[in-house]
């Protein structure tokens, strides 16, 4: 059996008195597409932050690419994190820079400092950036100022940055929150194709229909715990209704 891309072992995370995640155990194999669904406050974003190394667990272990993130020194952790691509709900783009510079941020884990700084004056790897933007329908925006792009265009720009990074594991936190329904399907299709190229996807979604259509496994979270974890073809409307109804009744 192959080494899991990701394994959480009895992971909990507290913020003061608030228990955001409670005893989460989860294993994801390379190439899987896993959707995290559940009501707001269920712990989806916290879970993604733990996997990406932005947070450390209060207890338990987070393993990524066969490494226990809590036991890595800074250098080894950076090496693992270079293999993790993040698509954020808030994009994390620099608005006063041209699109090409934000796309090229996907190279920063590999570029030496002199090349990263020099690229702000004389953009490097222009054709690579152009191809990434073309894949998300923004080829003509290569030198457009990022803050002048619409919310949906900025979300696609953030995806192009991940394409350039070429990570093994992609974490996406509500990647379709700022786009219309047609673009939502388009973005999910891009993410789906990446897993067909051998990458692994973990994506949090409010739109359950997208989760069922584009992911092969769905994890339902509520109140910081896993409510169900099963293939998307086996998730029933009743399970989903109960998942969200329980939160409303709490």
Automatic annotation (TrEMBL):
Gene Ontology terms, MF aspect: ATP binding; ATP hydrolysis activity; transmembrane transporter activity
Gene3D superfamilies on file: P-loop containing nucleotide triphosphate hydrolases (3.40.50.300)
Short name of one Pfam family: ABC_tran
InterPro entries xref list: AAA+_ATPase, ABC_transporter-like_ATP-bd, ABC_transporter-like_CS, ABC_transpr_LolD-like, P-loop_NTPase
Domain of life of the source: Bacteria
Coiled-coil ranges (or none): none
Keywords for this protein: ATP-binding, Nucleotide-binding
ABC transporter domain location: 6-248
GO cellular component, one term: plasma membrane
Full protein name: ATP-binding cassette domain-containing protein
């Amino acid at each position: 059996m192959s080494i899991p891309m990701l394994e959480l072992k009895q992971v909990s995370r507290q913020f003061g008195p608030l228990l955001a995640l409670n005893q989460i155990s989860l294993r994801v194999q390379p190439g899987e597409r896993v959707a995290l669904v559940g009501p707001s406050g269920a712990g989806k974003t916290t879970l993604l932050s733990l996997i990406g190394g932005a947070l450390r667990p209060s207890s338990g272990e987070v393993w990524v690419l066969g490494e226990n993130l809590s036991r890595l020194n800074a250098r080894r952790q950076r090496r693992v994190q270079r293999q993790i691509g993040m698509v954020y709900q808030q994009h994390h783009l620099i608005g006063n820079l041209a699109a090409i510079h934000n796309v090229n941020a996907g190279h920063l884990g590999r570029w030496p400092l002199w090349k990263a700084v020099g690229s702000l004056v004389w953009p490097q790897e222009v054709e690579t950036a152009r191809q990434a933007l073309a894949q998300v329908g923004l080829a003509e925006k290569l030198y457009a100022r990022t803050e002048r792009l619409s919310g949906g265009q900025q979300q696609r720009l953030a995806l192009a940055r991940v394409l350039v990074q070429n990570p093994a594991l992609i974490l996406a936190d509500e990647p379709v929150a700022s786009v219309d329904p047609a673009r939502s399907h388009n973005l999910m299709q891009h993410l789906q194709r990446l897993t067909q190229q051998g990458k692994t996807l973990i994506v949090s979604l409010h739109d359950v229909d997208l989760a069922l259509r584009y992911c092969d496994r769905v994890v339902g979270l509520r109140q910081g715990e896993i409510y169900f974890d099963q293939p998307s073809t086996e998730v029933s409307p009743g399970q989903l209704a109960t998942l969200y109804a329980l939160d409303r009744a709490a």
